[in-house]
Amino acid sequence: MTSRRDFIKKTALASAGIAVSANAVSAASYRRILGANDRVRVGIIGFSDRFRSSLAPSFAGHAKEMNFEFMGVSDIWNRRRDEAEKYFKDKESASKDFFKARNNDELLARKDVDAVIISTADFQHALHCVDAVKSGRDVYVEKPFAESLEDAKLALRTVEGSKQIVQVGSQRRSAPNYHAANEFIKSGKFGDISMVEMTWNVNQPGRWRRPELVNAIRKEDVDWERFQLNRPKVAWNPRYYLEFRLFYPYSSGIPGQWMSHQIDTVHWFTGLEAPRSVVANGGVYVWKDGRTNADTFTAVFDYGPFDNKEKGFQVTYSSRMHQAAGDVKEYYYSNGGMINLDTNQITPEGGLTAGPAKAMGMQANLLPKMELGTGGIKMETGANTGSDPMTSMHMRNWMECVRSRKEPNAPARAGFNHSVANIMATQSLHTGKRVTWDPKKTDIIVS
Q1: Residues 87, 44: Cα–Cα separation, whole Å
Q2: What is the SS3 assignment for 200?
Q3: Is the entire prediction scored with pTM above 0.85?
Q4: 381: which of 6, 103, 200, 407 is 20 to 30 A away, CA to CA?
């Protein structure tokens, strides 16, 4: 008997003058002819903390309306596979025949998966995205998009050479207050950006630590070789596996986890692909627990047109994990005032007032005080937002784009750009040298 799906496949191909049996239809071919009323079946690649706390609830909030469901999970740790099965038992957002795959090869070999959500270790995102896109699946991939320039280039080429919908988890790009700020800057009413200040501060000795799981995990329950992908092969280390954000080259730590969110807005608001240069500093100053990634980090970027060094602005980024004063802040400055993405206000604060202007034969330059639109939604930008409204809106945007085949709010190009900034800052931190970007060679220069 011919199923409805097989009938749709065969009919669409026949109308294009292609004779083929239903069994010969690839996932890539099917992806292009998914019917408007068909349920989109989504595989989970990496049953991570981030997935459980934020991505799964955000997906569930829209799944029924959008006719999406989780069909299965791929995770190389047997404990996570079992936890996923238990988590989704009787949940409306998951299918009754929920499938457990030992690895991505098993998951992507199935014909009943239309798209995937990738929330694996930071350094794995790009290569897992490449495999999924090559198999013909649409992708939601967590940030950072990539942790090495080679992986970033490969992922970007693969995505842009395909017809797949890929959304990077830079959820600020779906938040109404950030859209309002972007529109105000692009309108010219803000004036030229002269400086940007960003901070992300917490006081959390346990951030990215998993001591109980480190003591519980066994090598025989994990595919350690597969985990390492293209990183140097080393002996089994449960901390590398579970606390990867503390160890390079499995993660850059602060740049990849937190700075990637904030620096992405600079690229979005300005259209600049990369910083012209960066100098970074930091170290492990407080949490002496064996980590190699910094618990304190500061980077100073120079942004502007590569063909006009007379134009540009500075971005300062600082983050610490041992003192929370200052919390999370994002300030954009021009000569006329500032955009405060903490209070969601445009204000004349710090702008050029009449006295100093008159002394130089100039006019005062002060922005009006305005509220940034949030669509009536309470926007949370702190480090512990969990399933925040931005993630929910961002997930919905991806679902809508899978249906409409329109470009999502945070396409692969956006992920590539924030990855370049992260990688440059990380290289500067590790080498103690100034790092520049060569736009002609699309390469990093350490000088």
Answers
A1: 13
A2: strand
A3: yes
A4: 407
